[in-house]
Amino acid sequence: MSSANPGGWTTTQRHVVVASYLGWTLDAFDFFLLVFVMKDVAAEYGVHVSSVALAVTLTLAMRPIGAFVFGRLADRYGRRPVLMADVALYSLFGFATAFSPNLTAFLVIRSLFGVAMGGEWGVGASLTMEHVRPGSRGFVSGLLQSGYPSGYLLAAVAYGLLYDHIGWRGLFMVGILPSFLILYIRGRVPESPSFAGRRVRTVSAGSVLARHWKLAVYAIALMTAFNYFSHGTQDLYVTFLQKQRHLQTGAVSAIAIIYNIGAILGGLTIGSISQGIGRKRSIIAASLLALPAVWLWAYGPSAVLLAVGAFMVQFFVQGAWGVIPAHLNELSPAEARGTFPGTVYQLGNFIASSNAWMQARIAEAYGNDYALALVAVVLAAGLAIAVLTALGNEAKDVDFARQRA
Question: CA 338 to CA 233: how far, in whole Å?
Fold first, then answer.
C-alpha cells in the first residue's frame, strides 16, 4: 500500500486534506479578488493605484498577528475548532469589503481580513501534516500549497465571468461563500491525533523562541524571500497586463487562469518530487529554474507568449512553495507546531508586505513600467531563496507523534 497518494489514505485523512486545501483555496480567493480590481477601486475613490495597493500591504502586514493568535489558540484548544472560527472570520471580512464607503474604511476592513487570513495557513497545515503519514507529506505539501494558486484561479474565473455584470463590489460579496466550509469541517474533520487526547500544556511563545531563536530567525528570513518571490510575481501582474500591456478583461482573465494552472501543477509536481530527492534540493532547483522564464513573462511580445512565460514562472515559483508546508512543519518545534510554522511564514509576509506598494511606486516613477518592477523583485528573491535554502537544515520524514511524546 502506497501512502504517497490518495489511494493509500484513510477516509479521515482524505477529509482533513480536502478541508485544509479548501480553507487555503477560499482564503486566497478572497485575497486575490483585489488584484483584479485595483484600478477600479482607485478610480472610484479618486486615488492612484499605489494607494489601493496599500491594502495588499496592510493585509500581508496583519497576517502575522492572525498566525500567532490563532496558532496559540490551536496549540491550546485544538486545530479543528480554531480552523472553523478562522474560516468564519475571513469570509465575513471578505464580504464586508464590498460595503466600504471610502478608501479609509476599505483599508481597515482589508487589514482585519489580513488578521483572519493569517491564521488559516498554519492551523490548516499543522492539522493536515499531523494526520497524514510521513511518506505522504511531499505530495500533501504540494497539494495544500496549490490551494493558493487555486484560489487565484477561482478569482480569475470569477473576474472573467462576473465582473462585467456585478462590478468590483459584487465580486467581494461572493467572498461570503467560503463560510459554508465550516459545515464540512464540523461534520467530517476530526481533531489532530497529535493533539486529541493529550493533556493540554501551554508552552509560552517566549520560551519556544528562547530555545529555538536561531531557527526562528532563519525561517523568517527564508519566508521573507519566499513571500517576495510569490507576491512579487502575483500581486501586480494583473495590473501590469491591464495598464502597461492594455489587455482587456477576457485576455487578462485567460492569462491569469493559465498561469494559475501552471502554479497548481508546479506545487503538486515539486512537492511530490521533494519526497524523493529532499526538500532543500527541490526548493533550490525550482527557485533557480524560474529565473530563465522571467524575460518571456515580463517582455513577451504577444499575449500568447506572455501566457507561456507566466505559466513557466508560476510553475516554478509555486513549485518551490509546494515544499514549504512539509518543510516548515518538519523543522518546527513539536510543542509549538500550531504556532511556529504559521508565525514565521506570516512574519516573512510582514517584512515583504510592502512589495505591492513598492512595485507600484517603482512602476509609477518610471512611467508606469511595471515590467521593470516585476523583474527586479523576482530575480533578487529567487537567488535569495536558493542561497538561504542551501544554508539551512532539513528534517524530512521526522516522526511527529514521537516528537509530541
Answer: 28
224 belongs to a structural domain? yes
Residue 360 counted as domain residue: yes
Number of domains, the chain: 1
Task: At 3, give phi and psi (nearest 5°).
Answer: -95, 5
Q: Which domain holds residue 174?
A: 10-187+207-404
- Looking at per-residue confidence, does 362 or 196 come out higher? 362
Q: How far apart are CA 305 and CA 299, in angstroms?
A: 9
In a domain, 220, yes or no: yes
Residue 182 scores a pLDDT above 50: yes
Q: Is residue 193 part of a domain?
A: no
CA distance 196 to 198: 6
- The whole model's pTM is what? 0.80
> 318 with 233: CB under 8 angstroms?
no
- Check residue 2 and give its pLDDT: 38
131: nearest Cα among 90, 180, 83, 91: 83
Residue whose C-alpha cell is 467581494: 172
Mean pLDDT for the stretch of residues 202-226: 82
Q: Is 165 exposed, middle or buried (0-12, 13-18, 19+ CB in 10 A)?
A: exposed
Averaged confidence pLDDT in the chain = 88
